Amino acid sequence: MPLQFNTVKLFAGSGTKALAVHIADSYGHELGDVVLTRFSDGEFQPHFNESVRGCDVFLIQSTNPPTDNLVELLMMTDAARRASAHYVTAVIPYFGLARQDRKDKPRVAIGAKLVANILVAAGINRIMTMDLHAAQIQGFFDIPVDHLDASIIFVPYIKALGLGNLTIASPDMGGSYRARSFAKYFNAEVVICDKRRKRANEIESMTLIGDVTDQDIVLIDDICDTAGTLAKAAGLIMERGARSVRAVCTHPVLSGKAYETIENSVLTELIVTDTIPLKHESSKIRVLSTADLFAKAIMNVNEHGSISQLFKVD
């Protein structure tokens, strides 16, 4: 019997609307009509202005702060299920609370697991996301998770720069695996910045492991929050004799004084994706689109095709 393909409908949450428009354009569909009604006390209610009965529904929303983004996704999911959607996929370009993936000290929550439980309880059938802070978060779900890799977007851009003496760097020990995975595309060496924190978002000291003399350095990370780690790592690398240093980060959280920190740093540029919309423009920040990659993934899921081909970097 031939495979049956259900009607696909794409809907955007208010926090990731611009990216959702680009995904829909790349997919060849218009976004579905969903309205968010807000009450005077801040409460809100999503409402689908079209039927989703029997459809494969894709809800596009990153869950970065404020928490309204997560709650909005949950409520859209509930509305779709109650409207008899056949299958609901949450397309979460940036999975918020992913840094809370374990108990690193007593009496703390494991936020990533809690969010996974809530998403499944809301009725989501499948998760599609990109560059989780810790890949093992996929195991927090008992539903399929399509974990896309932004390397397929970043690698061609870095290759096009034509850097003669390329070395890949990790801004901390925890990101060394990510840096080594990235380096294999260039057959490049890896150096590591070993940092010690006083507390969250505050670095006490940093040392460099490896030689960066006369090298063009590309720092690799998944999240850029305050940009303090990247700026400090870039400064240390240049002090040690590097020719240039730039950074690649998938998710531009960019909180606090991040934009000012980036502008005042020795970074040539910060290359990010559009999983989170930028709050401000910056001459040093280059945004690469994830829309085509998510659109292809949505198409492959709907047509019961393989996702693995989307990990092949040219």
Quick structural summary:
This protein has 314 residues and is of the alpha/beta class. The chain has eight helices and 14 strands. The model has no long low-confidence stretch (mean pLDDT 93).
Give structural notes.
With 314 residues, the chain is of the alpha/beta class. The protein contains eight helices and 14 strands. The strands form three sheets. Strands 10-9-8-11-12-13-14 form a seven-stranded mixed β-sheet. It has a five-stranded parallel β-sheet with strand order 1-4-5-6-7, with helices on both faces. Strands 2-3 form a two-stranded antiparallel ribbon. α1 packs across α8 (291-302). The radius of gyration is 20 Å and the shape is globular.
Proportion of strand residues: 25-35%
Number of strands: 14
Mean pLDDT: 93
Instruction: Give me the strand/helix succession.
Output: EHEEEHEHEEHEHEEEHEHEEH
Structural class: alpha/beta
Helix content: 25-40%
Alpha-carbon distance between the termini? 36 Å
What's the gyration radius in Å? 20 Å
Main β-sheet description: 7 strands, mixed
Attribute tags:
314 residues; alpha/beta; 5-stranded parallel sheet; 8 helices; 14 strands
Which helices and strands appear, and what pairs or packs with what?
Blueprint: E1 8-12, H1 17-27, E2 34-38, E3 44-48, E4 56-60, H2 68-82, E5 87-92, H3 111-122, E6 126-130, E7 145-148, H4 151-161, E8 166-170, H5 176-183, E9 189-199, E10 202-209, E11 216-224, H6 228-239, E12 244-252, H7 258-263, E13 270-273, E14 285-288, H8 291-302
Parallel strand pairs: 1-4, 4-5, 5-6, 6-7, 8-9, 8-11, 11-12, 12-13, 13-14
Antiparallel strand pairs: 2-3, 9-10
Helix pairs in contact: 1-8
